[in-house]
Design a protein that fits this description.
Blueprint: E1 4-13, E2 18-27, H1 34-50, E3 53-58, H2 63-71, E4 75-77, H3 79-88, E5 93-97, H4 100-109, E6 114-116, H5 125-128, H6 132-140, E7 146-150, H7 155-159, E8 163-165, H8 170-179, E9 184-187, H9 190-200, E10 204-206, H10 219-228, E11 233-236, H11 242-245, E12 250-251, H12 254-263, E13 268-272, H13 278-284, E14 289-292, H14 316-325, H15 334-356, H16 364-370
Parallel strand pairs: 3-4, 3-5, 5-6, 7-8, 7-9, 9-10, 11-12, 11-13, 13-14
Antiparallel strand pairs: 1-2
Helix pairs in contact: 1-14, 3-4, 4-15, 8-9, 8-16
Bound molecules: iron/sulfur cluster.
Residues 60, 99, 124-126, 152, 211-213, 274, 308, 310-311 line the site of iron/sulfur cluster.
Length: 377
């Protein structure tokens, strides 16, 4: 029988203003031998070609899947680029190696495509901690606020939002809304929300969810580690607690952290995000050294040990199986999908306008005019 592990995570109770400990589970993947890996990769590459499918993988999944995605013409990226790549690619089938909300986002953007995932039970503590019904009630209680949700949410939560954002563009979008005088209702990650609030000065009401991987990084242990590596630069994803963010040399999305690892003039880096990212960092800067930031403990005392248990559910075996059988198709209710697409498209339009037309000037009034045609905000 397949092994599973129980995972505890903080679940916000917004109606009573506190959190409780909830539990979920994840399958523990069976790691193939080196010889099996070679055979599995060959079969998967052949099937991707035969079925005119493309593999889209997140930076946090197993390094074999990341390599395979790139070797077969797919992509490895953060969730913003995964969404764009999947939408714009001509393939009729997308195989998304990541967690469920990423597959849903792909389906929402490309309802005509078949979206497969190695394991449909690969979820996320942020998604689990933001129930759509409770979230709708929270929004209804604050009708004066523009609703901005992070990508790590269900399709139903995105359908209730005005904007969806990823960590690479969230700060700019909230800055834009703030410049337009909007008050924000933000969900679900409290740490990312606090960071954006601090950077922009926006009026933000925060849902109290957290990522169980990033929530485990500890400021005090990080300070101690830094003492023994004084020349190291600290790279932090903003889903981490404020005490960890405060020690960062660079705060950014996964892509931004990889770019920093490549371009910064340092030989050593301490990295506070899922350790799956080290594969890409090491490829981007082969001569540099990367150290995972300290978590609360090891093994039994650590909830995640810097690796997402749900990202880890993506493996070569189940990837091959879904390609062979067509199992594990992502489905999204069409009505929910249509509503959710509005909030995702606003972000993609904003990101495209920023990339192609102009760079945000830093003058909020000016940038507000620039993007004022996008969305209801
Ligand atoms: S790393 Fe955190 S935010 Fe990402 S999928 Fe896992 S639990 Fe969710």
């Amino acid at each position: 029988m397949e092994a599973t592990k129980v995972i505890e995570f903080e679940r916000p109770q917004m109606d009573v203003g506190s959190s409780c400990v909830a539990s979920a589970w994840a399958r523990v993947p069976d790691v193939p031998t080196s010889d099996e890996k070679v055979q599995l990769k060959k079969k998967i590459a052949d099937l991707l070609k035969e079925k005119q499918a493309v593999l889209v993988a997140h930076y946090y999944v197993d390094s074999d899947l990341q390599d395979l995605a790139e070797e077969t013409g797919g992509c490895v990226s953060d969730s913003l680029e995964m969404a764009r790549f999947g939408r714009d690619h001509a393939a009729k089938t997308l195989v998304v190696a990541g967690v469920k909300f990423m597959g849903e986002t792909a389906k929402i953007l490309s309802p005509e495509k078949t979206i497969l995932m190695p394991d449909l039970d690969a979820t996320c503590s942020l998604d689990l901690g933001c129930d759509p019904v409770e979230f709708a009630a929270f929004c209804d209680a604050h009708p004066d606020r523009t609703v901005v949700v992070y990508a790590n949410t269900s399709a139903a939560v995105k359908a209730r939002a005005d904007w969806m954002v990823t960590s690479s563009v969230g700060l700019d979008i909230v800055a834009h809304l703030h410049a337009l005088g909007k008050k924000i209702l933000w969900a679900p990650d409290k740490h990312l929300g606090s960071y954006i609030q601090m950077q922009t000065g926006a009026d933000m009401l925060l849902w109290q969810g957290s990522c169980l991987v990033h929530d485990e990084f500890k400021g005090i242990e990080l300070e101690i580690l830094k003492e023994s590596h004084p020349a190291a630069k600290i790279l932090v994803h903003p889903e981490s607690p404020a005490a960890v963010v405060a020690l960062a040399d660079v705060v950014g999305s996964t892509s931004q952290l990889i770019n920093a690892a490549r371009s910064m003039d340092a030989q050593e880096f301490i990295v506070a995000t899922d350790n799956g990212i080290l594969h890409k960092m090491q490829m981007a800067a082969p001569n540099k050294k990367f150290i995972v930031a300290p978590t609360a403990g090891n093994s039994a005392t650590c909830k995640s040990c810097a690796h997402c248990p749900w990202m880890a559910m993506n493996g070569l075996r189940n990837l091959l199986q879904v390609l062979e059988t067509g199992e594990n198709q992502i489905q999204v209710d069409p009505d929910i999908g249509r509503k959710a697409k509005l909030s995702i498209d606003r972000m993609l339009d904003f990101a495209a306008a920023r990339k192609t037309n102009v760079k945000a000037s830093g003058d909020m009034a000016q940038d507000g005019k620039l993007f004022s045609g996008i969305g209801p905000a």
